[in-house]
Amino acid sequence: MAHSGINVLFEGRNLIRLFGGLWTTVEIAAVALVLGLILGVVLGVLRTFPSRLLRFVLRLYLEFFRIIPTVVLLFLFYYILPKQMGVNLPANQVATLVFALWTAAEMSDIVRGALISVPKHQRESGMAIGLSRWQLYRYVLIPQAVSLELPATINLVTRVIKTTSLLMLISVMDVINVGQQVVEANNQKYPTGVFWVYGIIFVMYFVIDYPLSWWAKRMDKKRLERANG
Amino acid sequence: MAKEIVKVEHLEKFYQKRHVLHDINFSVNEGEVVALLGPSGSGKSTLIRCLNGLEPYQQGEVTFNGEKIVPTEKNWQKIRQKIGMVFQSYDLFPNLTVLDNILLGPVKVQHQSKEAATASAEKLLDQVGLREYENAYPRQLSGGQKQRIAIVRALALNPELMLFDEVTASLDPEMVRGVLNIISNLAQDSNMTMIVVTHEMNFAQQIADRVLFLEDGKILEQTKGSQFFEQPQTDRAKAFLDSMDF
Ligand SMILES: Nc1ncnc2c1ncn2[C@@H]1O[C@H](COP(=O)(O)OP(=O)(O)OP(=O)(O)O)[C@@H](O)[C@H]1O
Ligand SMILES: [Mg+2]
């Protein structure tokens, strides 16, 4: 009798290995997000400054990370750059770096968009009471931008988490990579195991991403209601 | 002789190629109330915004309190705490309570102690009858209330000059009176120096020591308030007053 496929999960240390892989994924995503979001806010603020050169350079940075597919970025940073520059970073760190830089690029656009959509009169009222540029951002513009940008930021976070499924391509032992190994190792014994393994990975991603995307939607709806009410 | 608070000499302002202010010359003495009148698009807002550096100008000099202003952003930033400005759209900061809106300037810009600044803010709030709203957020206030708070926010910095740009133009009619009264009191009781842009001719007549009449970016006449509304010197001003049903 063929074994029921679901038992592949409980064979040996399979489940623990899958959760270990998930942890690697989450760790990379979390560190990259924290670094990327902070850097993104700084870059977003800089992109609203008058200096054309600065804006141009930061715009190039954004377009570079936006246009080039993440897979290519991962290969570039993992296989190509180290050879050219003689540095050798472990795959996990390369992945964290790539995701952080990508998050920063996208975040800079979100922050810039939110900052420039704060009404011009707010800026002028702040200037009229003598605020310096830094104070204007600190007390008036950034707090208002944050509430505008929060849904877009959460959406970015869910996108980044989803995209971590590419990590296996540079042989990070993330949850997908572990899953693949589990499937291959148990192929003989559990021919249908593949469904269960990828099924549980699906559930894992869903459990992390769905609440975030639900939260973003709810906030957007609330904001629209407030704006129309 | 009265002290000159502001003096404008040969000021020229362009928006790109468009010449919107032509050779503007005038001065305002301490305690004087100047009404800046003129048809829509004549350049009133632009002129008043040049006086606290919100708009750059291409030529001419602005002197504040006897000092010629070197128009850099840093200099303007210092001078702005001495020049209060209230706009048509009452722009309180929606992320801050009424009290925090008022305290931002005194505490962060002028580095007053929070206690002292709060005490003066509350006194000003009492004067405009809004003390009970100090912990409310702007969205909980009516337009008239917001505009009164905006005036308090400007006054909290102890300015030497106040600029008002059509501060009642977007208010419901029943709110207008209260805001105008505050400005009148400021002129009469506190002897505040101010430049007022308004479409309310009765109000202008009541408070203006002097009227500057602006058309197409030029000052066509400068006349004493008592005289302007009875006997304007130019036909253009006469036509303007007629068009305002005055
Ligand atoms: N940011 C701008 N860019 C280009 N032109 C402008 C700008 N702001 C104002 N103008 C033009 O400058 C002229 C003067 O405008 P301003 O707003 O100062 O007039 P105003 O007297 O305040 O009019 P209103 O009574 O309608 O408020 C107008 O012709 C206007 O179209
Ligand atoms: Mg105007």
Automatic annotation (TrEMBL), chain A:
Keyword Transit peptide: no
Protein name: Amino acid ABC transporter permease protein
Keywords per UniProt: Cell membrane, Membrane, Transmembrane, Transmembrane helix, Transport
PANTHER family registered for this protein in UniProt: ABC TRANSPORTER MEMBRANE-SPANNING PERMEASE-GLUTAMINE TRANSPORT, MEMBRANE COMPONENT OF AMINO ACID ABC TRANSPORTER
UniProt entry tagged with the keyword Coiled coil: no
SUPFAM superfamilies in alphabetical order: MetI-like
Membrane spanning stretches: 20-46, 58-81, 195-216
Organism, as annotated: Secundilactobacillus silagincola
Subcellular location: Cell membrane
A GO molecular-function descriptor: transmembrane transporter activity
Family: Belongs to the binding-protein-dependent transport system permease family.
Protein's GO biological process: amino acid transport
ABC transmembrane type-1 domain sequence ranges: 22-213
Any one of the GO CC terms: ATP-binding cassette (ABC) transporter complex
Main subcellular location of this protein, as a coarse class: membrane
Topology relative to the membrane: Multi-pass membrane protein
TrEMBL record, chain B:
Keywords per UniProt: ATP-binding, Nucleotide-binding, Transport
Occurrences of domain ABC transporter (ranges): 6-241
InterPro entries registered for this protein in UniProt: AAA+_ATPase (IPR003593), ABC_ATPase_HisP-typ (IPR030679), ABC_transporter-like_ATP-bd (IPR003439), ABC_transporter-like_CS (IPR017871), MetN_ABC_transporter-like (IPR050086), P-loop_NTPase (IPR027417)
Entry's Gene Ontology molecular function annotations: ABC-type amino acid transporter activity; ATP binding; ATP hydrolysis activity
PROSITE patterns: ABC_TRANSPORTER_1 (PS00211), ABC_TRANSPORTER_2 (PS50893)
Pfam families found in the cross-reference section: ABC_tran
Family to which this protein belongs: Belongs to the ABC transporter superfamily.
PANTHER family with a match to the protein in the record: AMINO ACID IMPORT ATP-BINDING PROTEIN, PHOSPHONATES IMPORT ATP-BINDING PROTEIN PHNC
This protein's name: Glutamine ABC transporter ATP-binding protein
Organism in which the protein naturally occurs: Secundilactobacillus silagincola
Native organism taxonomy: Bacteria, Bacillati, Bacillota, Bacilli, Lactobacillales
